[in-house]
Amino acid sequence: MNGIIGFILSLLLTLLNQFNLSLETAFLQNDPAKLYQLMPVNSPILITLPEPFQVSDFFSKEQAFLIAKRLFRQISTLEFFIDQENPPAIDAKGALVQARWSVIDNRDGRKYLFRVYFYLFSEKVSDQSYKARLKIREIRAEKR
Question: What is the third-level CATH fold of 2-143?
């Protein structure tokens, strides 16, 4: 039984590491299309961002893509990395990943530092492999 649990945990950690790399790439490249790939197909996404963005609501995948597009036009990412001091909190329903995000507002040159929380869940893929993929259920940021 412990072998099965160990195998499942190692598989989940591998998926999480791949997801983290994709997430970091999306933010570092200011690429809404890469972030779009990490969003669920049929579930709303809760996005809560403080000023200068001031967004807080549930959005469809397409709406979230438009918000990300507007957001990445408004700012340039200076740094984005997954917080290594606070490892992901994993439970049966998903995982919580923390990141540090530093940006500069292209309009006025102001710099902002955020702690960002991503709540992830496993979305089943309907192709022939029936694999599960980690997707973003919630993005919540707070100023530091």
Answer: Nuclear Transport Factor 2; Chain: A, (3.10.450)
